[in-house]
Specification:
203 residues; alpha/beta; Rossmann fold; 7-stranded mixed β-sheet; 6 helices; 25% strand; globular
Length: 203
């Protein structure tokens, strides 16, 4: 996958995204917000906000910045939510923010989509302040599973619609070894989808 192919996919998919994704992901999206335990005035960063399906669950007192590389997806979000959210077109792998800016980061269904999940995670970690927390909702290959030929073929087919089911969480967070795992919960498809809460240690 690369950003150019992903942008083509999501340009076509944007008008249909909510219809396919909302009903079966809403409960998990709500759970991620609850785990972040946001306080009034917290600076929340949402990389890959897409059509904005997470936004209804974010407390109104939160200072939210949301980015996405797809103008079509952002237009969907803007058309639905008249809330104090700063929307920007941006690649999560190259964030134009200073280090340590955000109190919390919400990463829902992004790390399996971006071309390089490890690079994206490293950038997200950079803009998170010490003591901040990150919550992830995504699909990951179980650490104990091997990549069978069937799984490899399935992954190749699924990548044609812009997402990779064969990424391991351990590979993605290897560039942030100091991350503290506070929760790791299976949520959908027999644990293929998980919710992970990470904390960044204080300096």
């Amino acid at each position: 996958m690369n950003n150019r192919s992903n942008l083509r996919i999501y340009r076509r998919f944007a008008p249909l995204y909510d219809r396919f994704m909302y009903s079966w992901t809403a409960g998990s999206r709500r759970k991620t917000i609850e785990l972040l335990d946001l306080k009034p005035g917290d600076r929340l960063f949402i990389p890959g906000v897409g059509t904005g399906l997470d936004l209804p669950f974010v407390p109104s007192e939160t200072l939210t910045t949301a980015v996405d590389p797809s103008p079509m997806m952002l237009r969907q979000a803007l058309s639905k939510y008249d809330s104090p959210v700063g929307f920007l077109i941006m690649d999560v792998q190259i964030l134009a923010f200073p280090s340590g800016l955000f109190d919390a980061v919400l990463i829902n269904l992004i790390l399996s989509v971006v071309p390089d999940g490890a690079i994206a995670m490293e950038e997200i970690w950079r803009v998170l302040k010490p003591g901040g927390r990150v919550v992830i909702f995504d699909k990951f290959l179980p650490e104990s599973s091997s990549l069978s030929s069937v799984r490899l073929l399935l992954g190749k087919l699924i990548r044609q619609i812009g997402t990779d089911p064969n990424r391991r969480l351990s590979t993605i967070i290897q560039e942030v070894p100091e991350a503290l795992v506070l929760a790791d919960q299976p949520v959908l498809l027999n644990g293929q989808y998980r919710i992970i809460l990470l904390s960044k240690p204080m300096v």
